[in-house]
Amino acid sequence: MRYTFVILSLVISLFFCCNKNIKTTFKNVSSDKLEVLINENNVKLIDVRRPSEFNSGHIENAINIDYYGGNFSKNFDDLDKSQTIVLYCKSGRRSSKSAVKLVEKGFNNVYNLEGGFEVWTFKGKDIQY
Hints:
Mean pLDDT is 85; it is low at 16-22. The chain has one domain (23-122): Oxidized Rhodanese, domain 1, CATH 3.40.250.10. Strands 1-5-4-2-3 form a 5-stranded parallel sheet. The N and C termini lie far apart (70 Å). It has helices at 2-19, 31-40, 51-55, 93-104, 116-122; strands at residues 27-29, 43-47, 63-64, 84-88, 109-113. The protein is α/β, with parallel strands linked by helices and 129 residues long.
């Protein structure tokens, strides 16, 4: 009984000690909430689709950093890690993978547009060419 208590105490202590090192994750955001986020905050909006996709329509003020382009991660080295970053792609897959990479690089406020650009346009939100 005594050994069980000691082992249990050690396991609980290790859990809480190791938990401090867990990095924050990115947050998914709906297209409606993204509109509010864009209007209320100074966000860096990043479209991770291919340039041809970006040129066929994108969210206003977005910059294009191609997920499949060379040196994808290096393109983020000069960005402020405390700034709010919102990522999107066509459906949300590339942008969620990108969000994981940014969190691993130490970015604190990373958002992913749920459903991507497809949902944005389906909801009739403004786009720019």
